Amino acid sequence: MDPDFIRELFAPFRPVAAKRMFGGIGLYADGLMFGLVFDGVIYLRVDETSIPSFEREGSAPFVYPLAKHHVGRPSRHFWRLPERLYDDPDELAAWAGRALAVAQQRKGAPRERATKKPVAKKPRANARQKSASKKARP
After folding, report:
1. Beta partners for residue 63, in sequence order
2. Which of left, alpha, beta for 77 (phi over 0: left; psi -120 to 50: alpha)?
3. What residue ranges define each of the domains in the chain, with the CATH number in brackets?
4. What are the pLDDT tens digits along the chain (138 aa)?
């Protein structure tokens, strides 16, 4: 997708920067990534409160086609821009504003880290317990 087209499309919203990344393009406003473009499709950042709006529009989440451990897994953070918004600049600006607000919230929120469950180890008897149990045997 042409960066000039992207800037023109989002002009009613605010200046948007399009930066190449991971086989796609990141969409940035105020230094925050609020959307992405992959295979000519625009996706906006979402949260649990904005996803129902995308669902009502018949939209779908971004699916990771290239990620090493995420291939085929739908994203929890980006959903496809509804087609009707390409022809409605004012409504597009409102949706982009919500996506930017989500990006701002995520920036201030503490990051969740994946925690691995500790592997249960067999308790090892120390040397004294072993020698005591050997002496106790007849």
Report:
1. 74
2. alpha
3. 3-108 (3.30.1460.30)
4. 888 899 999 999 999 999 998 788 999 999 999 999 999 999 999 999 999 999 999 999 998 776 666 667 788 899 999 999 999 999 999 999 999 999 999 876 555 555 555 555 555 555 555 555 555 555
